[in-house]
Amino acid sequence: MSQYKIIFTGPVGAGKTTAIQSISDVEPIKTDAAASDMTKKRKSATTVAMDYGIMKLEDGEKIHLYGTPGQERFDFMWDILTVGGLGLILLLDNTRADPFQDMQFFLDSFAGFITETSVAIGVTQMDLSSKPSIDDYHKQLQKSDMKPAVFAVDAREQKDISLLVQALLFTLDPGLEDE
Amino acid sequence: MKSKDKKLIQVALYGMDERTYKTMEMFLKGPCKGIAVVVDEQNAEIDLIDADYIKARDVLDERQSQTPERPIILLSLQELSLSGTIYVKKPVQSPDLITALKQGNEILHGGKVKKRAGSAKQDAEPKVEPKLEDKTESTVEEGEADKKELYKEQQKTRKHRTARDLTEVGFSSYMGHVDGVDFSDPEQVLLASYNPKNHFLGYVKTAIKVAKEKSRILQLNSGWKSLVIFPHSNEIWLDAGDKQLRIYAGLEIKKNSKNSMSLSPIDQDAFNFGEKMENFDDIDAFIWKLAIWTSKGQYPVSIDINRPVYLKQWPNFTRLVVTPHAMRIAALLIDGPRTAMNLADALNIKPQYVFVFISAAKTLGLLGQAKRNADILTVPPEVKPSKSKGILSRILGRLRGE
Ligand SMILES: Nc1nc2c(ncn2[C@@H]2O[C@H](COP(=O)(O)OP(=O)(O)OP(=O)(O)O)[C@@H](O)[C@H]2O)c(=O)[nH]1
Ligand SMILES: [Mg+2]
Q1: Spatial separation of the C-alpha atoms in residues B211 and B209, rounded to whole Å
Q2: pLDDT tens string B295-337
Q3: B108 to chain A nearest CA, in Å?
Q4: Which of A133, B94, B127, B311 supports an S-S bond with B333, CB 3.0-4.6 Å?
């Protein structure tokens, strides 16, 4: 039987581990190790293997939440990971040097998966750096003729992550019933 | 990586705790457009000292004796003019810091010190109060640069409140209602419009436009509550709570009334917010909710109700009031143009919910109206549930259930 999963991706420190934690029903299995070399300056822990969480539905069905490790830029594992996935949540860190470049990299890397399913983008750390603005992201996306949802999110806020995932669901199927 | 870093000004930071240090690192990277990068003491070209740090004097003396040729930038809440230093007023504004860094860089490379801009000052210069117009960065960013400012920022509770996601039940009381329109009558419904220009909304929008064009902090004098617009930080301050605003929003403002509206410039430093930091709101979030309360389920007259509308981009729902069915409406309107009534039919919802969403989206400039005949002639595709509808709606239920 196929398993239902939602994939979280984005650059190092974008908030993938935190976001999965925010909406997971079970304490997620984190594979964070103390960050070494490159990432150390930015944060104390980074994900080296993969994040994993579960959302339990009323009928007992489980939705698996996978986060790609941020350190690796591209990995063959990503291809395997996305097979059968429902959609992609892309998290971007607004304090990084070039968030547009990050965005393009991940949109390209997951292009096939996004075409098959859909993507919703969350911009984190906007409390620390308000530029680029959400409008700027939309302008950037228009160049490649894309109109995904782009929300300002704080990965620590369950409500923010929940709305972002909801936007992904409605993008996949606007006909979804509310209640 | 190395060669890229080379062009950046190398600065060392002093007198900052870990959090402030990190914030400053990000501030240089983000708002200051990466003009400088933080390095360690030995490799720095310019020293950046928080002069409000208790031992700042010692740090300054030490820096001046160890590396006398190295330019020093002092950050302080108080105006400082210490010989051989460049002063930047806190809360730090990125244009000021950029100017100061450029000045330091010119001193380094033997160039003459150019005329200052903003409040970045060379010592011995005559005192010039920083002009408001010089400030171009948001106070949100500055707020992080300084604890006091951060505290202030946190007091802006209205602004930082997480988005409200309203169900139909909660919403009807939130939205208010219009007397005398029977929304179940297909004829009457098409007449249920309002003109924003006859409401507070219209005046606020004009005021925001002017403030942004002139890049000035403006007060809207309406004979009602005081409202101040901060174009640089995209903030609005209103001396009233949501309940009062909701009532006022719904009232028609008579033309030629005695309380005619006017705009006056405000000096940020002189303006007294009292204790009312919580009255700050983000401009977009503010006019979005103001549009909801003005509309009360009617559509704006500038929309031709018989022509399809579409969304230019998704609203930033995490920072806005999510009206009932707003996500579904948005998803459909991103896909392609539809008329309001078609939307209501397709989603099987009351037209008021479509109208209120259209009002809010229009106010933020996110809504377009189809002009091409093709858009009007073709019937939009039926809303069909996709294959995995079962699982998607169950996930939705789980997310909304919380
Ligand atoms: N200030 C602020 N901090 C945030 C926000 N979102 C997430 N964080 C914090 O950012 C840090 C990094 O988040 P992680 O969840 O570890 O990021 P990650 O994407 O898993 O990182 P890697 O595993 O290294 O790829 C954590 O300390 C979060 O609490 C935000 O919007 N604002
Ligand atoms: Mg992680």
Answers
A1: 6
A2: 988 999 998 888 899 999 999 999 998 888 999 999 999 988 9
A3: 26
A4: B311
